[in-house]
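Recap from last week: sequence in, structure out.
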Amino acid sequence: MFDRHSRILILGSFPSVRSREGQFFYHHPRNRFWAVLALVLGEPKPETVEEKRVFLLRNRLAVWDVIASCDMQGSSDSSIRNVVPNDLRRILDAAPIERILVNGRTAEKLYRKYCQEQTGRPALAMPSTSPANAVWSLERLAEAWRKGVE
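Predicted structure tokens:
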């Protein structure tokens, strides 16, 4: 999800089962991605897919995944095998991306392994918004993400 005005690219690893079913990024209701961005940007949390699209475009954010396809059991990042990375040049050639953020350590590791050489750009690792990262409160996540988004 991006347009020609996007300036920050946020990359996840690969969509969860719920995101694949909902056909949009961070669709699982317990993932705190949308709540974190809403706090950071001082806006109401978008709820519907259309509200999320508008929210991203209004804030000049692009969201994509490092992986285009892979073998994976459920939504477990640790089970990812046979990775085919996304070609991020599609976004980087179309939008004035100023910085790349990765959502969590798995996305960071995958970006460095499969994409960084292609893009020639470093990515800033942000703490995962996944419910599996329960040691981070919503407020703590927002404070960390603020440094990357603002």
